[in-house]
């Protein structure tokens, strides 16, 4: 946890208070990746990152956005309906602040507010997008990386478990929300079944079908490789 109480806000996380558990896990990941000065992150619903007692809420948040280096828009089904989030993102746009739309479960590009649809958006459950988020913050906010791989792995896994829970049918995310990262065992099994099915085509299959089968075998092998890759570390 940061300790220097005099530091200014350099990262503003716009979010809904209904997503405080998600925001907490995102911040834990950022703190595992970077040596962050105290009070450098503003996340108004999370203790330790919220406003001080007596602060004027609207004025303080506006000033935080004005002086921060980067704004993260944590966009979920709840936050895209939040007047506060829309106001904060509108202020970031008006002040021409670098803004990173970070899409949560069930949110797609058409849900992104107005002008931010023109930006490259990132998805919370895509490993490559999370790596891009870390790289962008290192440049935009000039954060110094930490070298604690174990802490990064713990924070990453906590975030992914939370996302899987939210995307499970019957929970807060709808059934048709983004799928979680595929189970490697299922991917390998699917790839093996495809390859086995292709092998049964036999020599009597016409040349075109054989060629198509070879393509499917290749796809099956790619799926197997993809499953294996999911078992490796998030950040190479």
Straight-line N-to-C gap:
25 Å
Number of helices: 7
Uncertain ranges: 1-7, 169-188, 197-206, 223-228
Main sheet strand line-up? 3-1-4-5-6
Look at the structure and name the CATH superfamily of the largest domain: Toll/interleukin-1 receptor homology (TIR) domain
Provide the gyration radius in Å: 22 Å
Q: How would you explain this protein's 3D organization?
A:
The chain is α/β, with parallel strands linked by helices and 236 residues long. The protein folds into two domains: 11-166, Rossmann fold (3-Layer(aba) Sandwich); 184-230. The protein contains seven helices and seven strands, in the order βαββαβαββαβααα. The chain has helices at residues 20-33, 57-67, 83-94, 127-140, 149-166, 184-199, 207-230; strands at 11-14, 34-35, 41-42, 70-75, 99-103, 122-123, 144-145. It is globular, with a radius of gyration of 22 Å.
Keywords:
Rossmann fold; globular; alpha/beta; about 240 residues; disordered N terminus; two-stranded antiparallel ribbon
In short:
By secondary structure, this protein is α/β, with parallel strands linked by helices. Helix content is 46%, strand content 10%.
Layout: helices, strands, pairs:
Layout: E1 11-14, H1 20-33, E2 34-35, E3 41-42, H2 57-67, E4 70-75, H3 83-94, E5 99-103, E6 122-123, H4 127-140, E7 144-145, H5 149-166, H6 184-199, H7 207-230
Parallel strand pairs: 1-3, 1-4, 4-5, 5-6
Antiparallel strand pairs: 2-7
Helix pairs in contact: 1-5, 6-7
């Amino acid at each position: 946890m940061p300790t220097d109480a005099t530091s200014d806000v350099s990262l503003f996380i716009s979010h809904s208070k209904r997503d405080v558990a998600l925001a907490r896990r995102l911040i834990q990941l950022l703190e595992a990746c970077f040596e962050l000065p105290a009070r450098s992150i503003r996340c108004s619903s999370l203790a330790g990152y919220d406003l001080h007692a007596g602060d004027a809420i609207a004025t303080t948040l506006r000033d935080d956005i004005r002086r921060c280096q980067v704004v993260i828009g944590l966009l979920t089904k709840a936050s895209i309906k939040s007047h506060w989030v829309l106001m904060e993102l509108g202020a970031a746009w008006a002040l021409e602040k670098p803004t990173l739309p970070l899409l949560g479960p069930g949110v797609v590009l058409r849900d992104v507010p107005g002008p931010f649809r023109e930006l490259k958006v990132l998805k919370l459950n895509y490993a490559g997008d999370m790596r891009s988020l870390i790289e962008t913050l290192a440049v935009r906010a000039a954060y110094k990386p930490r070298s604690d791989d174990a802490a990064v792995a713990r924070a990453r896994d906590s975030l992914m478990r939370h996302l899987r829970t939210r995307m499970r049918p019957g929970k807060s995310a709808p059934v048709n929300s983004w799928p979680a990262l595929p189970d490697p065992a299922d991917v390998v099994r699917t790839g093996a079944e495809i390859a086995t099915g292709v092998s049964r085509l036999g020599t009597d299959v016409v040349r075109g079908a054989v060629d198509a089968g070879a393509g499917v075998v290749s796809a099956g092998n790619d799926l197997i490789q993809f499953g294996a890759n999911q078992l490796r570390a998030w950040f190479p």
